[in-house]
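Practice problem: predict the structure.
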Amino acid sequence: VFGPPLVWIARISKPLIGSLNAVANGILRLIRIEPRDEVTSAFTADEVHLIVSRSSEEGTLTDVEGLLTGAIEFSDHTARDVMTPLADVVCVMKGASAEDLEHLAVSTGFSRFPVRDVDGQVVGYFHIKDALQVRPGEREEPLADWRIRDIASVTPDAEVEAVMALMRSSGAHVALVGDDDSPEGVVFLEDIIEELVGEVRDMISRKQSN
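Answer:
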């Protein structure tokens, strides 16, 4: 379930976010920019880039610059940027058994597998937990259709934030990118998280090397 982990993360990160917000407001005042009410207005990405750049030049930012800029760049990404091409996705056929799923999880290290029907269409996905819940005497039998989880569907140009919001609301950690008849790829929740972490790390490393 997607909701509880997000609630847990939100509760833990709330103090940090509050501190960062206070620091950000302080930085804005240092460079003679009055903080805006976040409820009534918001800075554009270009405005924040300018603020971060000016703050860095004045020595008021270090690694935080990499964190902020990386997060901003991440916000410009689309589903196509973070998806795995369908040809590279490890899928299972409808009718796969619990043992099939377990062997695939061991050999690939993955936990989620899109499910194809006899026509090759992606009809949902299995999580390794679906195999672990099968009774011992049924492990070689085809997994029941009701165990197939619904897969979300997004357009290639959908913003990453929109994809994450859809995953949260639907409870699906996997999204099909493109039309159902001709999908381009698949986005996994892990892909989005890794993309954000990678952007932040890249930006911090880039700034430290300069």
